[in-house]
Structure formats: C-alpha cells, structure tokens
Design a protein that fits this description.
288 residues; Alkaline Phosphatase, subunit A; 6-stranded mixed β-sheet; 40% helix; globular; binds zinc ion
Length: 288
C-alpha cells in the first residue's frame, strides 16, 4: 500500500491578496515569482474576518487557522499579537497537532528556538499561538542543538537574526532552509513552519524592506516547489490576515488571504475551504 501523503503547511504571517486598486503592492513577478505562481495558479481566497467587525489580527486569526475554532467570535473581537488565557485554552484543547497525534499520526513544528530546552520555552513571557500549541500537544520544541544540526528551521530562514543572540554557527541559504524543512516533512504526516518577517515588514510600510523579505521567502518557496515529491507531499501556503500586500497602510488589511495547495488532493482541499476555520478540518479529513 502507498504511504499516506505528508502535509507541509507554511504559515506566512500577514500575507493577503492585493486588491487591484493598490499601487503600493510589493508582490511582483520580479520579486517573488514562485509565491505569485502559488497565489494565482494553486490558490483560493479565504476571508479572514471570521464574521467579526474590525481588522483581522494575529492571535485570533492564528488560533482559528490552527484549531478550526472561530476564536474571534468566541472572544467577541480580533486580538493582536500573543494569545491570553482565553485563547490559550482554545489552542490547548483544539490545536491541529493534538488532532493529528490523537489519531495516531506524527506531527511537528519545524521552527527552531534558540533555547537550550523546552523549559526555557515554557518560561518565555510571550508565547505565540504556535508555541502554545507545540508545547501543549507535542511536549517540546526544536531547540538550539537541533537547529545547529539542521534539524530545525529558524524563523528568518537564514539565521541572520540570531547573530544578535550569540549564534556563531554558519548562516544558511533559503534553499538550504527548504532542504532542511523537506527532510523534516518527510518524517511526519503533518509539519508546520511559521514565517512572520512578512508581517513585520508590512508594519514598517517600507517597500525596500518588504521587497527584501519577499525575495528571501521566494527563494525558499521556489526551492520547496522544485525539490518536493509532489506524489508524496502536499504543500499548503496560507496566512492569518493581510498586511504586506498593501504598503499604503502600516496596519493589517481587510484583504482575503491565499490558501495555496500543491500536491495530492489539492483541488478537493481548496474546494472545502472558504474561511479560516475550514482549514484545519479540511486537512484532517485527509487523515481519518
Ligand atoms: Zn501584524
């Protein structure tokens, strides 16, 4: 029997689909051809509002994305940044990692933390939605020594940002980061990688900064697409809310986000996803 295809989800914070009226959009075929190809040929548009007025935000958006629970509706508003106790309860109880492992599948968060062990991660003052989900469902995070052995990918892809934190090891290219991620994805039924430099760049409103970030991300996505085995792995690229696609504002946008799928069951998956809370259940349907 053929092994069940693996799923690799690359979650990109703050990437919306630009409206045609925007003329301050840094996404172009010169800057990010592979990402644009995914967003046009392999994607559907997902509404990020969750039926709640106001601008979509990260804590509620990511919780909805990674649990299938409408966190903004429950909290009665969009919540920025890091999840508080109410959202943490939803994440701990319903996150996608937990759902995979409770069905007997292997799931992992591929991001590496520049920390010695998970106790240090538990003591972090601000824990992201992904950190809360990973620690509660999987018990540990990929730590410093795993990162140094290339068994994890750092959030900025190249580890440049780690210099300021005392990292003296080699930098990696976005292509090498993609190779490391594909090795991890091959060993798990579900792998998540989180990239949030896009949201940071979007909040600066700086075209040059946004272009740099998108070029690096595109080299990574291009390498994933080139080297992935499309029979055995499906690549999902999605986001929590818009931001970087419209630099005329430093705030998030009301734009829909892409839900890109390449690989097995791509069409069926896209057909099942219209809003953020559909994503986790649609993926889980493939792993009964
Ligand atoms: Zn943001």
């Amino acid at each position: 029997m053929q092994p069940r295809p693996r799923t690799l989800m690359v979650f990109i914070d703050g990437l919306g689909i630009a409206s045609s009226e925007t003329n301050e959009c840094p996404l172009s075929s010169a800057t990010c051809p592979h990402l644009l190809e995914c967003m046009t040929a392999h994607s559907c548009a997902v509404d990020a509002h969750l039926g709640v007025p106001g601008l979509p935000q990260s804590a509620t958006g990511q919780t909805a994305l990674l649990t299938g629970v409408n966190a903004a509706h429950i909290m009665k508003r969009h919540i920025e940044g890091f999840p508080g106790p109410g959202l943490c309860r939803i994440i701990v109880k319903h996150n996608i990692f937990l759902k995979f492992i409770s069905r007997g599948y292997l799931a992992t968060f591929a991001n590496g933390y520049f920390l010695e062990n998970e106790d240090e991660a538990r003591r972090l003052r601000l824990r992201s939605v992904t950190t809360v989900a990973t620690l509660s469902a999987l018990g540990s995070v990929r730590n410093r020594s795993m990162l140094e052995r290339n068994q994890a990918v750092y959030q900025d892809l190249t580890r440049e940002a780690l210099g300021a934190r005392g990292y003296t090891g080699p930098l990696v290219t976005p292509q090498e980061a993609a190779e490391h991620l594909l090795t991890i994805a091959d060993e798990h039924h579900f792998t998540l990688f989180e990239y949030f430099q896009t949201d940071r760049a979007g909040h600066t409103g700086d075209m040059q900064k946004a272009t740099e970030v998108l070029k690096r991300l595109d080299a990574f996505i291009g390498a994933l697409l080139k080297n992935m085995d499309r029979e055995r792995l499906r690549l999902i690229i999605t986001s929590d809310h818009g931001n970087i696609e419209d630099l005329s504002t430093r705030r998030h946008t009301h734009n829909p986000v892409p839900f890109c799928v390449v690989g097995p069951n791509a069409k069926a998956l896209r057909a099942n996803v219209q809003t953020m809370t559909h994503i986790t259940p649609a993926i889980l349907k493939l792993y009964p």
